[in-house]
């Protein structure tokens, strides 16, 4: 009896210690997040007080006159990220459906391992591959063909240099395809087998089963995968900086060079003196990117919670 009491006391002590450590770890994460936000606001305050909200929609970036605006960087970030999503989503969903519904068992594990390995490749290596391999391909034949076939559209006009929004969008798509594919595959795996069997029992084809039973059941999870991929695309730095051209202007052609928030910060941060308005403006860009990324991740988390609630309700 005494031994059992000692064991129970030791177990309760261990539970209490584990609970406290978990609480400390959770609070530490929250503290780090809040600390990052506070530091960014403090460092960006000179720019915020100097330009106010106009910092968001002005296009100047003149170090001689200390005039700075974030609009070209925001525009480049949004355009390149949305282009990456447009390219990556069909490929990722197609790969996820193939791996979960069509591929033979011996191929599923191999293909899944390769996809996960792509996500582990350092971005600087993918960026170098993009400069030496992808950019020449984008210049000719992709931009050449798009210019000849759709040159009447403003987004496909301009010099065909290879570097620009189109190359950046393709590179970002390559970066986020493994993420979206892996998450989508896990979501589709979680669809109950009874959903498929019920459709097949009603005489549905394989495609009808996938489109009407599998994909609708995992809709929220698939949207969450896309949003998390978008979050990765918004914050990617080196890959974009190496292929986008780094021209701080707003141009509507996908062939044109541009700039994003991460590439602008990476390109100038090391050459900017601390305490200057230029440094504060770069940190203002970082604050904008932090806010955008935080909003994207909050939306993704809400969608995951909604998906879990729907599944629990159906069960």
Task: Summarize the structure in words.
With 315 residues, the chain is mostly helical. The protein has one domain: MetI-like (MetI-like fold), CATH 1.10.3720.10. Helices cover 77% and strands 1% of the residues. The chain contains 11 helices and 2 strands, in the order αββαααααααααα. It has helices at 2-51, 71-102, 105-120, 123-150, 165-189, 193-201, 206-217, 219-235, 238-243, 261-268, 277-314; strands spanning 61-62, 67-68. It has a two-stranded antiparallel ribbon with strand order 1-2.
In short:
The protein is mainly α and 315 residues long. The chain has helices at 2-51, 71-102, 105-120, 123-150, 165-189, 193-201, 206-217, 219-235, 238-243, 261-268, 277-314, and strands at residues 61-62, 67-68.
Number of strands: 2
Q: Give the strand line-up of the largest sheet.
A: 1-2
> What helical percentage do the residues reach?
over 70%
CATH topology-level fold name: MetI-like fold
**CATH first level: which class?**
Mainly Alpha
List keywords for this structure.
11 helices; single chain; 315 residues; mainly alpha; two-stranded antiparallel sheet; MetI-like fold; 1% strand; flat
């Amino acid at each position: 009896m005494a031994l059992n009491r000692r064991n129970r006391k030791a177990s309760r002590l261990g539970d209490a210690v584990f609970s406290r450590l978990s609480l400390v770890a959770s609070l530490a994460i929250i503290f780090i997040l809040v600390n990052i936000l506070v530091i960014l606001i403090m460092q960006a305050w000179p720019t915020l007080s100097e330009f106010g909200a106009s910092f968001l929609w002005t296009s100047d970036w003149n170090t001689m006159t200390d005039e700075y605006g974030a609009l070209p960087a925001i525009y480049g970030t949004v355009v390149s990220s949305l282009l990456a999503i447009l390219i990556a989503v069909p490929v990722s969903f197609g790969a996820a459906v193939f791996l979960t519904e069509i591929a033979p068992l011996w191929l599923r594990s191999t293909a899944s391992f390769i996809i996960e390995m792509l996500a582990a490749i350092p971005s600087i290596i993918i960026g170098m591959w993009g400069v030496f391999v992808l950019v020449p391909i984008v210049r000719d034949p992709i931009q050449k063909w798009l210019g000849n076939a759709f040159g009447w559209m403003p987004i496909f006009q301009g010099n065909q240099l290879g570097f620009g929004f189109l190359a950046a969008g393709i590179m970002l798509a390559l970066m986020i395809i493994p993420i979206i594919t892996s998450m989508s595959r896990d979501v589709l795996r979680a669809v109950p087998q009874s959903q498929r069997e019920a459709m097949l029992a009603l005489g549905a084809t394989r495609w009808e089963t996938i489109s009407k039973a599998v994909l609708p059941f995992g809709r929220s999870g698939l949207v969450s995968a896309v949003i998390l991929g978008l979050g990765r695309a918004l914050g990617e730095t080196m890959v974009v900086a190496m292929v986008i051209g780094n021209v701080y202007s707003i141009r509507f052609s996908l062939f044109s060079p541009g700039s994003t928030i991460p590439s602008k910060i990476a390109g100038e941060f090391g050459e900017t003196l601390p305490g200057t308005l230029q440094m504060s403006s770069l940190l203002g860009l970082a604050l904008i990117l932090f806010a955008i990324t935080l909003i994207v991740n909050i939306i993704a988390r809400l969608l995951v919670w909604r998906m879990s609630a729907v599944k629990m309700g159906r069960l």
